[in-house]
Structures are given as C-alpha cells and as structure tokens.
Task: structure prediction
Amino acid sequence: MAEGGTGRARAHSHPAPVDARPLADAAAPFRSFWMGGFEGADHINGLGVPLDMVRGNGHLAQLDDDYRRLARIGLRTVRESIGWRLAERSGAPPRQRFDFSRALRMADAAARHGVQILWTLMHYGRPDDVDVYEPGFVDRMGEYAAAAARALRGSSAEPAVYTPINEISFYAWAVADTELFHPYRRESERRRKPGEPPGRVGVMVKRHLVQASLRAIAAIRAEDPGARILHVEPIVRQVAPQHALELSARAEEADTHQWQSWDMHAGRLMPELGGHPDTLDLLGVNYYHDGQWEIETGARLQWHLRDPRRLPFESLLQSAWKRYRRPLVVTETSHVGVGRAQWIDEASAAVERARRMGVPVHGICLYPVVDRPDWSNDQHWHRSGVWDVDPPESPTPLRRRLNLGFAKSIRRAQRRLPAAPIAARAMPHLLVLSHWPWNLPRQRAHHLLARLAEHYQVVWIDPPAHAAVPPCVQRGSPCTGVELLRPLTPVEAPGWADAQLPVLRDLLARYVATHAVAEPIVWVTTPLALPLVDALRPRTLIYDAIDVAALAQGEPMQRHEAALLARADLVFAGPGRHVEVAPTRPDAVALPNGVDAASWRGGSRAVHDSGALDAIEQRIGRPRLGFAGLVDERIDLDLVAALADADPSRHVVMVGPITKAAPAALPRRPNLHWLGAQPDDVLAALVDGWDVCLLPFEQGVGARRGEPIEALEFAAAGKPIVATNAVATLGNAVATCTDRDAFIATCRALLAEAPAARERRNAALDDAVRHHAWDDVAQRAQAAIEAQLARLPGSPSQPDLSSLGPPRAAAVDTTSIDTDRR
Result:
C-alpha cells in the first residue's frame, strides 16, 4: 500500500492480560513490562546479499500466529522494524515513493491480539541512492520519518513510539571499521587523511547519523506531536588487559564513547548539530554477554566464566540513569543455546536490583523473541529466541518451537517484575574500606556484605596494590550486588600506608563524584583507613572491629584504633573483640561469625569441575586430616609437620591461599599436601572427604579470635575438630589440646571414635550451627545500621535496639568427645 490514505485513526479493543498481575508500570508508555523483539535488519550484508529478516524467519507470513503466541505469555509490547530500504522506492513519483503496507499489516495484526508495536525506522538498511557519508542523507531521513509517522498515526491506542535509527554507535563503528554493511569496506582506512587520528571516520559517521536522527525526531513530532522517541544503544564496558594495566586510563576514556550519540542528541557534545535535552525521551539499552571486553586485545570478559572484571548489569543501568535521568528500557537481551534460561534469570534479577536502587527501568525486551538466521550465513540459526525455528528446508519449514527452559525462566521473572516497584529513593551506598583484598576467600565480611547487598549498594574497596601505572581504579563485580574497586598506584608502600593516602584520597573522591555517591554509609575494617573517611563524606561511619592481627603491631595501631572508636557512629565487635572495645564503646554491637550450613553438608553442592576434584583426591591417601583457611602467621607449622611425621600412613591436607608465610618455609612431607586456594565447591567436597578437621593455630592467636570461621564450617560439615585453642561457640564439642603430643593423640583417637560418641558430638555441633547462620548475623547487622540511620536528623523513627545484645550462646554437650585433653 502506498503512502496515500494511510493516516486513518483506528479504535481497537484489547484482550485481557494473561493474568491479574499488572503488565506494566503505570507511568510507562508500554502495554507490558515484558516485551518481545523481532529481528528486523534490512541492510545489504558484506557479501552483497540484501537482507529481509522479517521475511527470512517467517514472521511476515505468520504475523497473527506470532502475536497470538506473544500475547499468551504476557508479551504485549513488541519491537518491529519498518525497514527503510524496503519501504522507499528510489526514483518513484512522490505519492508512490513510500510503501508502508507491510507496517500497516503489522499494525492491524497487532491490534487484533492486543499487542503494542514500538517502531524502528532505520534498522541499518537504506535506499541504494542514499549514502551515510553524504549530506543528503539527513534530508532523506527526515522525509522518510515524516511519511512513516503520517502513515502510522492513530494505528495504536497508545502514543506511537519510534526509534529513528537503531544503535547509532554500533552502526557508525561497523560502517567505519568493518565489512558488515555493503558497500562499506573498512572506511576508516580508505577515508582517513594523512595525519588524522584513528577513529575520526567513525565519529564523522556518528555525527551524520545523529543529524539524521534529530531531523527525523523533528519530522515525527511535526506529524504526530504525541509520539514518543526511544533511543537505542548497546551498553558496554571496556577495561585494560591484565598484562597492560598502564592502559587503564585509556580504557576509561574509551568506555565513555558509548555515550557520544546520546550526548550529541542532548546538545552536550557538538552542540552545533542542534541537539537539545528535549530530544532525549526514552532510553533503550541493548545488553549481551559479549558487551564487556579488553581494549587492544578485544578479549571478552566472559560471562559464563564469571570474569571478576565484569560490572554487574545493574551498575551499567545506574550509570545511564545518573548521566541522563531519563526512563530506561532494556531493548534487547538474550543468550544462545542452553544459556538462555540462566541469562534471563540473572538479567531480570539485575533489573530488579536496579529498580530497588531507584533506577526507572520500565521494560525488558527479549530479543529476538523468535529465532533468526545469521546475517552472513542463512544456514546458521542462533538459537537465541523464546521460540526456536525449524530450518526452511526441513519437513516443517519455519515452524516455531517453544524453548521450555527459557519460557519457564521468563515466567519466574514475570512473577517478580514489574510487581517489585521502582524505589522512591535509591538504596544507600555502603562503601567498605577493607584490610584484606576481596580475593582472599571466605572472609567474614564477604558473607555479611554479600547479604547486605540486598539492601544497600555495596562497593568494596581493596587495599591499594602497587603497579607501575598512573593511579587508577580497576572495577569489577565479585558477586551479585557487590562492586569491587581495586586501587592501583605507583606508591610502593603496602596496604593503607601513610604514603598511599594522598593518592587514594584523589582516586576515591573522583569515584564518588563520577558515580554520584552522596552521603554513603562507610564501613571500615582497619584503623589505617580512617584518614580517608572524610574524602567520602559519609552519612554514617561504621567500624567493624575484627582485625586482631593488626593490633599486635603495637602502640601506633592501638592509637589509630582509639581514634576510630571515638569517631565511629556504629561499632561492630567481632569474635573476641567485644570485651576489648566495650570499655570505650559500651554501645558496640556484638557481631559473631556465622556459617552457611547448606554449603558444607556432604553432597549438598555439585562440583563444577569434577575432573579437578578427582585429580586432587587420587593423589591423597586415607585417612585424611585437614585444614581449610588462610595459611598465614596463625598456623603452627611445626605442629603440622609433627602431625605428618607421627604416622606416615595418615595424610595431612592443608587448603587455602598462603598469605603471610613464605612457601619455602612450609614443611614438606610425602603425606603432607599443600593444595593452595580452591573454588568453594571443590573445597566443600574436599572437606566432606576428611576424617578429622584441624585448627592448628599458634597458641593464643586463635584464642583472641574466639570463634574462627573455619570452626563453624567444619562443624557444619559434621566433622570431628581438634584445635589448639578453645572455640567459644562450640565449647567442648571441639577437642582442645594445648600440648603437641595431646593434639596428635587426640587426632588418633578421633579416627577410631565410637559411633555413639560421634552421634553425640554431631548433635552438639548441629545445635551450635543452627544458632550461627550468616543470614541471621547479616540481619543483626542491618538492624543496627537502620537503627543508626533512624537516629540521624530528619529520620522518622528510631527502631528498638534491645534485641541487639550479645547473641545467645548455643547449648553444647560438654561430654561429647571421649578423649584425653591433658
């Protein structure tokens, strides 16, 4: 159908939603929060083959069936492409120049099934006589946009939503630096003038595309003043390679290029183009697994390998929101093959967290909702849709087949979103200045902060590391909801030394300003970090008094701690510290260690790399006596060696990173195995195979710790435990031996322990473990934080703190171990 006579208004009835839950946020211009996108690229590919993806996967022939399928699973908003190359007839008379019959067919079919369409005008394709490098491109885009808006005006009950040009940043890069789009062949190499910097050609293309988009927006609004504009761009992350950290500053700069298109539209960049903030209406971000990479090498930060340098999706969304303060939509996201279900589980959870952080994300579009062939190889189908598609040459050509795993994940996500509302105010930032780097496993703070990330925007700041690079901060995400900052400085002094402080103040102040961190909660675990607190301008300062070893450094450190105790608004006293800090801070909240019992019970966790576990266990005989934790100055290496020497048929297994002991100083025996750090799943499986667990600390060191995390973990695993220092939380359920010979004898006795005695001991350990769950400890910490915040000026109420006294000690059976404890 030609353009003439297509501007008729229409009234449509819309079928009821699939269930009673709200399908969309009330303030959003979308019929449903969950959306589906149909691949609509219509360009000529690098091989010179014209593409029509809407026809290629059978969508054009199955419009009614496809929309009916989407509506049934609650996807009542879809993204469709009109296709400029397909809609404009070059050289035709003016009234026959544009043919929007395909788009109108889509609009009619969508109306029959209660589906709203979000239109893309240019999905990479363009008429043959239009060149993105030529000035005429802008005028032609404006004429096309006006004709499309005129033709589609009134075709939906909601205001029309248009994306003038899909992914300007990607398209500019592809035209300038690849051979994806005919007839362009790495135009950066051909068109760059001598002496011009790399990237100039890409910026020139981006400039032309933005000019054309601005012209299209003006034309659309002239024809349909109520229309909404949805700008769509990939959201990405770039980092320096691990072997070239000196490129960190350059990576940060490259990372900002993703915002250039929107900055041009807003008039912040190249204002001569005519950009204005009013042209930024709705912002769409496309998010895929390969959207984070190293500069120079191009190596991807692999999602499936959990590369810790990846930033969480919610952090990327928050960056876009803080920069532009415009409503957001996830306009494309999916994965391939069997990874689809897990991908959408995690992406939707990230969106839910972003909404709790106050980021207004109003929709998620599954793209492609129906599978599609590759642009350059129509025999290769990506298997990335909610529906897979039988190949055209099969007995059932282009038949849709629902991917059940993906569909179940979508249904789970629909139960949470959009039911969980956008927070009226952002979750507070919680910045942690830690005495240990995050990559040392199984720290107390790991367990607490990972759980508190449900309620706060947690940013963990490692001690600075020396690197021969300009000062910079590496960012990553070690676990859900936690952002990790690793300062790199040219200062050689270790940790939070005084020489590091001026550089760190500048780095942290820059981070706080760049990421709009206002009045954070600051949590410090070392007194040495106190001089940095003022640069963070905290709303509340928390001191987590846990670092016992640091206080052994003498009077200067004790003086630092006294200053921190006086300054802190809230003090948490870790195991063994409550008695020490109480005289100065009687209001200190005792915060014990905990355990995630389910992770340590035998057979409860599948091992990701069973081959690695088998390789370890094949070289270790039985019986096995083991320790799992940090191998540092606490460990009595002489005792470990004596235990191995006492009986060569017994195997002593030591698992954990070596932090403050020289590897050369470790005793070596055929039956003494130093395994280093192991993944959590392998570690739990190793402990499950031990006959006795060891706490071989130097005398007095473990006593000050009161309740080492390792003790609770071994107890949760149901293992006999022999310790050199008493474990307060487990009482006599742990065999305490202060004498080396008694320690060795007790290990021998426990290997021959009678079943009845073992049952009594396990009952006592189970009772202790039940009263020391990390979830409970984290709730205790959160209650104390919220009580402190409530006391601040302007807070509505002050919660009752009476429940935050010292935790109830678990009852333990003092007769559960039948051994000599001389």
